[in-house]
Design goal:
The chain has 152 residues and is of the alpha+beta class. It has one domain: Immunoglobulin-like. 22% of the residues lie in helices and 47% in strands. It is built from 2 helices and 6 strands; from the N terminus they run ααββββββ. Strands 1, 2, 3, 4, 5 and 6 form a 6-stranded mixed beta sheet that branches. The longest helix is centred in the N-terminal third of the chain and has 27 residues.
Length: 152
């Protein structure tokens, strides 16, 4: 009886550690250009002078599907030339943070979400780059609730 529970706890911990390790490794080795102007022409990226924009870690793991995932995310950008940049979350009109006449910037964001979150970096001409934090889970939310106690 206890052996099965211990095995489940160990498998849960192993799955969490694996997901966190993968997230950490991918955050330490970010791919720089795919997040820039997601799906758009990359010629404009060279014109805007943006070199890098990423979110570390780029994955947030909750135990069960539908639960809120909590993660402190570090957003960084690096540009070739000085400019004015603003960070937006999702399609929110109001920026979270703005920088004036800079080539680099960083911001710590306290993420609380059940779904993937998209961060966009804007300059005076519009959206320059996008970074996405993916929300994942260890277990699917089961429709049937299991009883944790028994009489016999």
């Amino acid at each position: 009886m206890y052996g099965l529970r211990i095995a489940r706890v160990l498998s849960t911990l192993t799955a969490l550690c694996t997901l966190l390790f993968v997230s950490t490794v991918s955050a330490q080795n970010p791919v720089q250009s795919p997040n820039l102007r997601s799906g758009e022409n990359h010629e404009g990226d060279r014109a805007s002078g943006l070199q890098e924009f990423n979110a570390k870690p780029n994955k947030c793991v909750a135990l069960r599907k539908g639960q809120v995932c909590y993660q402190r995310v570090l957003l960084r950008f690096k540009a070739r030339t000085k400019g004015d940049y603003c960070l937006h979350v999702e399609n929110n009109v109001n920026p979270v943070q703005c920088w004036n006449n800079v080539t680099t910037g960083k911001y710590r964001y306290e993420l609380e979400s059940r779904e993937n979150v998209q961060f966009a970096l804007h300059d005076s001409a519009g959206r320059v780059a996008v970074a996405v934090v993916t929300v994942a889970w260890v277990y699917k939310n089961s429709a049937r609730r299991r009883t944790t106690w028994r009489i016999f």
